[in-house]
Specification:
The protein is built from four helices and six strands; from the N terminus they run βαβαβαβββα. The protein is an alpha+beta fold and 158 residues long.
Length: 158
């Protein structure tokens, strides 16, 4: 089975991801098929080891999808296989990204194709100025080995 995988960085909406809000593209009969991987309160994540910064967003979201509605439509065998792959990917995301603290991860099985929403708080440690641990997507990615190439092409824009 040959598929593509895509990811989109989004502004994030945990109410949508956790189906507290149901949009018109959702099949209500299939909501029970969604898979919640992680569901923690964002406030507890901040109290764990992060303080809010006016320069950064409260959290970030990335959406991953394997295939598309033409080759991986919900209800097909391919969709189930792709959902299983996304589930394993989500379970290992935190280990692979130690500076992106995941507080919510959900696989939607009630839209056109299976896709994974991961909501996280990026944090950098051992900072020399200000708090030693602070919220920063660019710094978090840099500490994980992603390097930018100047002010307009930072690690978070790669």
């Amino acid at each position: 089975m040959k598929k593509t995988i895509s990811a989109v960085i989004d502004k994030g909406n945990t109410h949508h991801n956790n189906r507290k809000i149901i949009t018109e593209n959702v099949d209500k009969d299939k909501i029970s098929n969604n898979l919640t991987i992680v569901q923690n309160d964002i406030k507890s994540v901040y109290h764990e080891h992060i303080r809010h910064s006016r320069q950064e967003k409260e959290f970030h979201e990335v959406i991953f999808q394997i295939g598309n509605r033409d080759d991986t439509h919900i209800g097909t065998t391919d969709a189930k296989v792709c959902a299983d792959i996304l589930k394993q990917f989500a379970k290992n995301f935190q280990r692979r990204n130690p500076h992106l603290r995941v507080f919510n991860a959900v696989i939607h099985m009630d839209e056109e194709t299976p896709h994974l929403h991961i909501d996280f708080v990026p944090f950098a440690t051992e900072q020399k100025r200000g708090l030693s641990t602070r919220v920063s997507l660019t710094k978090a990615l840099e500490q994980q080995g992603f390097k930018g190439e100047g002010k307009l092409n930072t690690a978070s824009k790669l």
